Amino acid sequence: MHLTQTTAGPAATPTLPDLDPGITLLDADTNTTGAVQTLTLDRILLAGADGESEGYWIGNGRHARTDGLHEIAPAPRVLDRLQVARAFTTNQHLQLLRTLGDRLTGDREPVVCTLPGLDTHYRDGELARDDHEVFCRALAELRGLVREHDLTVLVTRSRRDEFSAPLERLADHHLELTQTQFGPQFRDVERGEQETLVYDRGDGWVQTTLAYWETVLAEREPLYAQSGPTVEVSA
Question: What are 27's strand-pairing partners?
């Protein structure tokens, strides 16, 4: 995980954390939806949106909705590189994890797999078995996928408590996202390194709406062009 202290101004390119292979857990004191969607699309774009690579999104609960991804994507064709699966029950989510390995053996290189709210369904008591035991089995499935495919995984959790503690122990990298008046600030929990993502719009307090994240991706377009063939940013 590479983070740097940034004091960007109006003309600077917004910066985002690099996602390294392994499991990255993102905790936040605010809604993580826009940040998670942005980090996912950024990873795909850095790999070259027209290249032989793709990302995976396994959503559940409110994260099963993908309209935000359509709003912030620089161009519709970017989403052709993101395979979306939705789980509405504990069993569905566990089965998606178990079958994900089959999807990762295709011609396209998996550059990121995002699982927002990973613990959500496992708290519901839907299955007769112990909820926490089933959650730990899901984490074991995820660890096996990472080990076998050298996968880059981004996860969030619905609550930071004893139930989700095994996810924190499993994670190879741990980021915290806080809101400041200058924009979102990412912190590497283990190293204590910080990277302040600043996009100065000249209107005082920075509101991290979907429009904000859309602008961040649009302003990072020169970086995507350096990574290889990409898509034209929509006006």
Answer: 176
Sign of CA dihedral 19, 25, 31, 36: positive
What domains can be seen in the chain, in order of their start residue? 1-176 (3.40.50.300)
Q: Is 83 helix (H, G, I), strand (E, B) or coil?
A: strand
Cα–Cα distance measured from residue 83 to residue 89, given in angstroms and rounded to the nearest whole number: 19
Query: What is the amino acid identity at position 115?
Result: L
- Which residue in 61, 74, 6 sits closest to 33, CA to CA? 61
Return the amino acid letter for 159. Answer: R
Tell me the two tokens of residue 167: 């996810």
pLDDT tens, 79-89? 999 999 999 88
Task: Tell me how far apart the alpha carbons of residues 26 and 42 are, in angstroms, rounded to a whole number.
Answer: 15
The confidence score (pLDDT) of residue 207 equals 67
Does the predicted model carry a pTM greater than 0.85? yes
